[in-house]
Amino acid sequence: MLSKKTKYGIKALVYLAKKGDKLPVQTSTISESENISKKFLESILLTLKKNGILGAKKGKGGGYYLLKSPEEIQMTTIMRLLEGPIAMVPCVSLNYYERCDDCPDEDTCAVHEVMLKVRDSTLKIFRNTSLADLSDY
Amino acid sequence: MLSKKTKYGIKALVYLAKKGDKLPVQTSTISESENISKKFLESILLTLKKNGILGAKKGKGGGYYLLKSPEEIQMTTIMRLLEGPIAMVPCVSLNYYERCDDCPDEDTCAVHEVMLKVRDSTLKIFRNTSLADLSDY
DNA sequence: TATTACCCTATCGATTTAGTAGGTTAATAT
DNA sequence: ATATTAACCTACTAAATCGATAGGGTAATA
Question: Which of B34, B32, B14, B121 is closest to B78 using CA atoms?
Fold first, then answer.
C-alpha cells in the first residue's frame, strides 16, 4: 500500500512540474490546492529538498521549486526517497538488500523468485516514468 | 512490503505442494521445517482453510492438506487472501476499490495512472504463477 | 476414554502512520 | 532598522498494524 506521504509528495511534485516556470511556490498554496495537511506536506517537501529534488527560498515570496527539469526526475527516485524499497521483500531489493533470517537458501526460495519478477516489472515502469510523464494528465 | 503472514502462508503451501500426495500434515511439522512460529502459522493455515484452499483433519494423524491441485491455485488468490489488495492504491484496486477522498478527479490523477500500470504488470505475473510453479524451485 | 491436533478468543509489545503543536531562522519588504 | 513572511526544526500524539503469545475448547482417532 502506497503511503500518503509518497502520494502527497508525488502530487506536490506534479503541481510544481505543471507550473512550467521554476518560481518558488509556498507550501500553503500546494496544500490548499491538493487537499493536503500543510504541516505534513511541509515535512515531505523538506525531505525532497534535502535530497536534491527541490530547492527552497525563505522569506516573503519564498517557497519550493524544482531543481531539475521534470524529464530528469524519475519515479524510481521519488519512490525510493519517500516510500523506501520498491521490492516487496528485502532479499530482492537492489538498494535496501537484506537477508531473510527464516530462509536457508535464497536461490531455491519460491517467494524470492516471484518477488524478483514483480520487482523487475515494477522497476521497469518506474524507470520509464518521469515527472514529465506524470504531469501530462 | 510483503507481510510475514503472506510469506509464511506461501511457504506452507509450497511445502504441501511439494509433498505430492494429499495426506494431512500437522502444523508443527511445517512450522519446524520452515522456521515459522507455530501459533502464528496456525492462524494462517486456518484462514487458508476457511477460504477453501486447505482442508483439515482433526485428531491424531490429522493436519492440513491441499484441496485443489497446485496447478489450480493461483498466486492472485493467495495474495488477496493473506496480503489483501494487490494494487498499491485503493482507487486502482479490482477487488478492494475505494475512492480517494483527497482526489477531485480520478481520470486526471497522475498517481492513479502509474499505479494502474503497476497493478496490471503485477497482476499479470501473479495470474501466470500457480502454486505448482512456485514449487518447482 | 485418553490423546491428539485442529480451532477459537484475547492480549501483547513494538513499530509505523499521519498527523499536530510550537517554536527558530533567514530572507524580504516597509 | 524593523516587521513580516515562510522555510526549517524538534517533539509529541492517537490510531492502526504486525508478529507473536497464552490459554483454552472441540472433534476425531486409537
Answer: B14
Residues of A in contact with B110 (CB under 8 A): 10-11, 14, 134-135, 137
- On whether both A25 and A61 belong to a single domain, the answer is yes
Helix (H) or strand (E) holding B56: strand B54-57
- Residue that the C-alpha cell 515531505 belongs to: A44
**Could you tell me which chain B residue has the CA closest to the CA of A113?**
B134
**Nearest-by-Cβ selection for A2 from B14, B89, B125:** B89
Do B46 and B9 have their domain in common?
yes
Q: How many domains is chain B built from?
A: 2
pLDDT tens per residue across span A20-52 = 898 999 999 999 999 999 999 999 999 999 999
Name chain A contacts of B134, Cβ cutoff 8 Å. 110-111, 113-114
| pTM (2 d.p.) | 0.94
Same domain, A116 and A84: yes
Containing structural domain, residue A26 = 4-66
CA A103, distance to chain mean position in Å, is 30
